[in-house]
Amino acid sequence: MYSIALALALNPELIILDEPTTALDVVVQKEILQQIEDLKERFGFSILFITHDLSLLVEFSTRIAIMYAGRIVELAPAAALFEQPRHPYTVGLMNSFPSVTGPRRAMRGIPGSPPDLAAPPGGCRFHPRCPHAMALCRTTDPVLTEECTGCKVACHLYPPSNEPQARC
Questions:
Q1: Which secondary-structure segment (H or E) carries 17?
Q2: CATH of region 2-100+121-153, choose from 3.60.21.10, 3.40.50.10300, 1.10.150.20, 3.40.50.300
Q3: H/E/C letters for each residue in 128-153?
Q4: Residue 127 carries which DSSP code?
Q5: Ordered DSSP codes for 21-55
Q6: Where are the domains of the chain?
Q7: 100 vs 51, 58, 97, 136, 158, CA distance in Å?
Q8: Residue 86 parent element (H or E)
Q9: Taking burial as the number of CB atoms within 10 A of a residue's CB, which of 84, 94, 116, 131 is the most buried?
């Protein structure tokens, strides 16, 4: 918390938190995030929260951008992303941690390994690990396009259209 207090001393409009609760137990994580949320409301700053733990984001985020190999593959309001993830990587992430509510389900990892960013694969960077990869994915990088109002996805499963679907 000392480093957060130090960051607030200059009254910033934005604070970037890169894995602020890594290696902490769940109870301490929740307490720290609640204190950060209280400070955000009190001082009126925004937060860019960088984490691999999506379960932390559901309660504290307004919008979430999912990145894979240095590119945004999905961007959506937090509730919409958790209710209906679109990109296969996002779906894989959601299936890789236990659900706190609802029925019990088996956790599944994402097969394969992340790409070497010094020599990333052509086309969609996720295609070597994607269960839905098509020939187009190997040659053409998908563009981040609006899938529904407020939701964007970069995946050939969702070809760009002139009109986004209804609001998520």
A1: strand 14-18
A2: 3.40.50.300
A3: HHCCCCCHHHHHCCCCCEEEECCEEE
A4: G
A5: TTT--HHHHHHHHHHHHHHHHHHT-EEEEE-S-HH
A6: 2-100+121-153
A7: 18, 11, 9, 37, 29
A8: none
A9: 94
Contacts 24+ apart (CB under 8 A), 8-12: 8/39, 8/43, 8/45, 11/43, 11/45, 12/45
Separation of alpha carbons 39 and 67, rounded Å: 27
Q: Residue 152: count other Cβ atoms within 10 Å of its Cβ.
A: 20
H or E element, residue 75: strand 71-77
- Helix or strand (DSSP H, E) at 77: strand 71-77
Written as six digits, the tokens of 27 are 């109870």
Q: What is the mean pLDDT of each run of 10 residues along the chain (168 residues)?
A: 77 90 85 89 91 79 93 94 93 80 78 94 96 96 89 91 57
**pTM (whole model) above 0.90:** no
Tokens of 4: 């957060």
Contacts of residue 100, defined as CB under 8 A and 6 or more positions apart, other chains included, come to 55
Is residue 154 within 8 Å of residue 73, measured between CB atoms? yes
